Amino acid sequence: MSVPDEMLEFNDDQSCLFEGKLFTGLAFRDFPDGSRESETEYLDGFQTGHEKRWARNGILVADYSFLKGELHGESREWYEAGQLKSEAQYELGIELAYRSWDESGNLEVNRRLEAGTPHERMLNQKRAAL
After folding, report:
1. Are 98 and 111 in contact (CB under 8 A)?
2. Looking at residue 11, what is its pLDDT?
3. Cα–Cα distance measured from residue 56 to residue 40, given in angstroms and rounded to the nearest whole number
4. Considering the entire predicted model, what is its pTM?
5. In 10 A of CB 66, how many CB atoms?
6. 49 touches 41 (CB < 8 A)
7. Cα 111 to Cα 2, 52, 97, 116, distances in angstroms
């Protein structure tokens, strides 16, 4: 099922409803000219799969991966000219690695989750809860 995102309702727990039921399908938003602005996949009311965003010129500018409403897997952003702006890896909403570049392709940020940090402890708690 594919519906405009303005037809969705959100609960306090960030779950998504369509016509009073947990939504499974694709929510989209279009620019006024009818071209696609964004698409978000949902499963049982939560973002699961990809959220994609496009610039007005039709270039893909973001592709985020989600699992049960949290960033999970690889996410990427691009400049409108098409070059890679950033890429990150997430697990259960915790950033494992992140890199970003300026428009000339120069690496600006390069970070990884460090052992012993509060974020690593939180990730381990989330893993144990599965």
Report:
1. yes
2. 93
3. 17
4. 0.92
5. 22
6. yes
7. 37, 24, 6, 15
Looking at residue 130, its pLDDT comes to 87
Residue positions counted in the chain: 130
The set of residues, in sequence order, having a beta carbon less than 8 Å from that of 62 and lying 6+ positions away, is 51, 52, 53, 75, 76, 77, 78
Query: Three-class SS of residue 118?
Result: helix
Instruction: Dig out the tokens for 103 from the structure.
Output: 């428009």
Secondary structure (H, E, C), 3-44: EEHHHCEECCCCCEEECCEECCEEEEEECCCCCEEEEEEEEC
Q: What average pLDDT values come out for the chain (130 residues) when binned by 10 residues?
A: 96 93 98 97 97 96 97 98 97 98 97 96 94
Residue 126 has phi, psi (to 5 degrees) of -65, -40
Domain boundaries, the chain: 2-129
CA–CA distance, 110 with 35 (Å, rounded to integer): 34
Query: What letter would DSSP give residue 77?
Result: E
Which fold does the domain 2-129 belong to in CATH? Outer Surface Protein A; domain 3 (3.90.930)
Distance of CA 94 to the CA centre of its chain: 12
